[in-house]
Design a protein that fits this description.
The structure is a single chain. With about 270 residues, this protein is of the alpha/beta class. It has 6 helices and 14 strands. The strands form 2 sheets. It has a 7-stranded mixed β-sheet, sandwiched between helices. Strand 1, helix 1 and strand 2 form a beta-alpha-beta unit. The relative contact order is 0.14.
């Protein structure tokens, strides 16, 4: 029995779109299931993929055992020609090696950060046209079927290594509400493996260059300093973060977009 459904979509917090989507999901899902909504910037499949991996990946020590994660960020960039009848990217059904089921629009990097964790990936029999609001009109019924262990909607089994692009390296994966910059640099990356706590580095994002200290956590630097350290995301292999104690790293770098390149230079 499903206890929690995570919804990841590129609708603004409190937007009418969220209200309609939640209403549609509540209509179809069995009563024990609860919904939690997470917003990403418009068309941002990098943030979608980063969040999806954090909520669905890893072991189940920090979540209920019976969850479904649904992600819909559909920039419709798989075909740049004029769309017929609001046709959009297809919906995929994914089973992870840890047993978590995912329904996700096949767009950009939405699955990239889970590429090595995929057990099975399937195309689905769901309308990919006929509505510009598929996450309200078409997708909730499939999530409800998944919650009831009904997989009659799956179609062809796909190869994840052919279907899913690799995750982008050395870019911003997500910026949280505190202005902490979560990077796609993982612990063990050979380009930063020689850095030790206390080392000083220059970080360039766009036209902004700032100096930061390599740290082991959020509070072993002085108030106001910038730090580069393994963060709270990434499960067993943490992603590094750029943060400012008592401030906003995003503000220091001019509020860059997710996907912006990061350059780290030891001093």
């Amino acid at each position: 029995m499903t206890h929690l459904v995570h919804l990841i979509c590129d609708y603004g917090p409190g937007d009418l779109a969220w209200a309609e989507v939640v209403s549609a999901f509540s209509r179809y899902l069995p009563p024990p299931a609860r919904l939690h909504c997470t917003t990403v910037p418009p068309f941002d499949t990098i943030a979608t993929g980063f969040i999806l991996a954090q909520l669905a990946g890893g072991d189940d020590s920090l979540r209920p055992k019976d969850i479904i994660v649904f992600a819909n960020t559909a920039p419709r960039k798989d075909n740049l020609k004029a769309r017929v009848n609001n046709e959009g990217e297809g919906l995929l059904f994914v089973n992870l090696k840890n047993g978590v089921p995912i329904l996700v629009v096949n767009s950009g990097h939405s699955l990239s950060f889970l590429k090595n964790d995929i057990q099975e990936i399937w195309s689905t029999n769901v309308e990919d046209s006929g509505s510009q609001f598929r996450s309200r009109d078409f997708f909730p019924a499939l999530v409800a079927k998944t919650a009831n262990s009904d997989y009659s909607f799956i179609n062809h089994k796909l190869d994840p290594f052919e279907t899913v692009p690799d995750p982008p390296s050395y870019v911003i994966g997500y910026i949280d509400s505190f202005g902490n910059i979560k990077t796609t640099i993982r612990t063990g990356d050979e380009r930063i493996s020689e850095l030790k706590p206390g080392d000083r580095v220059k970080i360039r994002i766009g036209s902004y260059i700032r100096t930061a200290s390599v740290a082991t956590g959020s509070f072993n630097i002085m108030e106001g300093d910038l730090a580069l350290a393994p963060g709270s995301s990434g499960h067993a292999q943490r992603y590094w973060e750029i943060f400012q104690r008592g401030g906003s790293a995003a503000n220091e770098f001019g509020h860059p977009s997710n996907g912006s390149s990061i350059h780290i230079m030891p001093i």
